[in-house]
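Name: Polyamine aminopropyltransferase
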Amino acid sequence: MSNTRTETATLLALTFVVSFCSFAYEFVYSELLTVMYGGTVTQYVITVGLYFFSLGIGAALSDDLNAEDRGENFFKTEVLLAAAAPAGFLLVVALNSVRIPPAVPSELIWFAARLPVVVVGFLSGFELPLLTYLVDGLGEEDAATPAWLRRFGSRVHDAVVRCLGVVWTVKRNDGRRSGLSVVLAMDYVGGLFGAIVYAKALYPGLGLIPTIFVLALLNALAALVFVVRFGDWSPTPFATSTPLVGRVPKALLVVCLLLTATYAGVVANHETVDDQLSELYLEQQIEDEYRPGTMRAEVTSQETTKYQHVIRYRRTWTGSGPNPHFTGRSEQCLRLDAAVQMCDSWADSYHNGLVDVPMSMFERGPETEVLVIGGGDWVAVDHLRQYGVTVDQVDLDARFMNRTKNEPFFRRWHDDAYRYDRLNVTVGDGYRYLQQTNETYDLILLDVPGATDDELLTLYSEEFYRSVRRHLSDDGVVVTWAYSPDGYPEHNKAFLNTVGAAGFTQHLPYWAWEDVDSDGEVERVERFHVFAPGERRSLPVADGTDYVRRHSDRYRDAQWRPVPRYNGVRVNSIFHPNYDILVDT
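Structure predicted for Polyamine aminopropyltransferase:
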């Protein structure tokens, strides 16, 4: 009896572990597909739907597995899961690391990227029925539970039954629980723990790549524990008991051992593996808007903060570049998540456009109040410091802000601007800050990344711009970088509709200019908008900032215009996001 209780307890513990892994796998795939293709809601909904669909198919087909080899089939299932889950992860990464010929249908790529979800769900569908049969075969599932846990569970069960009795007719079942009910309970608890541990520990603490190998290692260990505890290890055929697992194929056992050892090594060196795989992927993806062979990229450093993936890299133009002046040129760049934030060749011109152009419209002194939302690299603050204005800055990522204070790449551009004596810094969410503060500002600068994922859509929403408008002074304006209408026409329409719906009636679009390739001719670099909820003074040129006067021929004709309204393009709202158009994937 004692041995049977131990065996049952082991099976229930394995149920918990495999359920933990199965649910966590789907969260990993959901996040991975979001990173690769954008659309958090879309990816999570489709992934969960496909998972439960394939889970049901697997469960339905589990009865067709040989009833006499259920133990061996469970072992095979766990080994296959341990192998398939990381392989599927790497497949999705590979699909986004190579240039796929245009002739390949996009529907085929869509299906291939989600095939790992189906495979993991299908294999997971075998687990629960197989474990239920195994536990029922032992017949000691109640006895295997510790006494204190049985007492606690009994009290909780009594309380729940009394609640059910308010609506339904119930009868307390004091008999032995079926194997199905006990295994289901452990399965649900394992799934809950899988979700919590993934969200609170694995993903934020390790990242996606190490997490998938941690889960695969648990799967492989579960398979090993099962086969060691329940396998047929007797030296003679005259064993006193019948094992749950017959003599497993030696090749399969070797595969399981190799997987376990490999994953253990990966987990032990997870930081190195994470960096190498991430760099391999990123170096294929960075600057992929250029044609193949135009540019070579090398990741020099990367880290994941609580809020974003910070990537530093060096890019070098090859002989096939768009301009002969570029050939052989090398420069450092900063990338936040999927958006290129700053490169040596245009770091200054970007901030000239963001700060120096609109500052031509205001007094240059402490009486001018400026709010910077974002700008954790401190470069915008450095430009504002030149005009002696009062600056409030709100940025979400304290870790990134602290890192940029001392790194040479950033110090070159911000010149220790974080020490500016008229600067007040708040670490927090810009939208929430606007909801809580009573301050008004003459100039609000949005130094934020492009809309590369759903989490950034708040900064492109009608609600956010309404909050911005409420905190402008009588003559105040807001300035933001914007996607070009030439390259992103639908995004531009949706963005302008959103800003207009928030109450901004006038806008002044303009470009930042720079001689990027040092050929003596200035080129337009980045596009910006000044938005206002009413009439404002025109952009002064003769008495503007040094930058505006230097490019006076480019800004002399800049005019305020009514914010256009485009038919058939939906406004972006927090509760009704327009991510299919706004998110840049």
